[in-house]
Write a structure and sequence with these properties.
alpha/beta; 5 strands; 5-stranded mixed β-sheet; 47% helix; 2 domains
Length: 255
């Protein structure tokens, strides 16, 4: 039986992240597993690597803020859980299979397996507890990176949750491309969202780069190298701008 849990359903910014873990029945499990919310950040970081090394298989799935706005948070959580489960299945050793799932009160109609959806599963199952740790640490690391791109919002501390300081920043600076625009306090109808520092730098480079094949190809390399820092909408926008520039000048280059 694999355990699945998520992190990030309540924030107004950033992705929702799910994880799935299955243990080898005869394998040794890390000590100290518990609901990630009951553990210190240092303990979660230590357990993160131990879980990945000792689990029979594991997976992490991400659903972006844009997908949350498109589908709603429940469906986005299901999508992230499905992606985590797909990763877990792909990592299973030959001959191994998952027969059932245990989730934290989350039904997953798209996965054709028996599912035990029980409240506080991460406090009752070591697999679900391990999944909660993987999801929490993975999401916190993402928000740390995004904080460097949007330092005004304090995501290194609030993780995108609607604290008073975070809401005040949204009111002062406006929402970003990482905010969930359908969530209360952010607003579905709003001005053009703020872009990351890396996006702004790359746009300035694009505007200053001579429209040559080598110049655009080099800029495309920089865009790809920044993929882990850029919100997906910004990656799409940069690729589109590069493509339009190349097409306008009759340049054939892949982005």
């Amino acid at each position: 039986m694999a355990g699945i849990d998520e992190a990030g359903r309540g924030p107004i910014a950033g992705p929702v992240v799910a994880a799935a873990v299955v243990w080898d029945l005869d394998g040794r499990r890390p000590t100290g597993l518990a609901d990630s919310k009951l553990l210190s950040a240092r303990t979660r970081e230590r357990l993160f690597g131990q879980i990945q090394r000792r689990a029979l298989s594991w997976g992490i799935g991400v659903c972006t803020a844009g997908e949350i706005d498109l589908h709603n948070i429940l469906e986005a959580t299901r999508l992230a859980a499905g992606r985590a489960f797909e990763q877990l299945v792909a990592r299973l050793p030959p001959g191994a299979a998952v027969g059932a799932l245990l989730t934290d009160a989350l039904d997953l109609p798209a996965i054709p397996l028996p599912i035990m959806a029980i409240p506080r599963a991460d406090q009752q199952s070591s697999a679900a507890a391990a999944a909660s740790i993987l999801a929490k640490v993975a999401r916190d690391r993402m928000m740390d990176v995004y904080h460097e791109e949007f330092p005004e919002y304090g995501w290194n501390e609030n993780r995108g949750y609607p604290t008073a300081a975070h809401r005040a920043a949204v009111e002062r600076f406006g929402p970003t491309t990482l905010h969930r625009h359908t969530f209360a306090g952010v607003g579905f109808f709003c001005a053009e969202p703020r872009h990351s520092l890396t996006y702004q730098r790359l746009v300035r480079l694009l505007e200053a780069t001579p429209p040559t094949r080598d110049g655009l190809a080099a800029l495309g390399d920089q865009v790809r190298a920044a993929a882990d820092r850029l919100p997906p909408p910004e990656m799409d926008a940069l690729r589109q701008r590069l493509g339009e520039t190349a097409q306008a000048h009759g340049i054939e280059v892949s982005f």
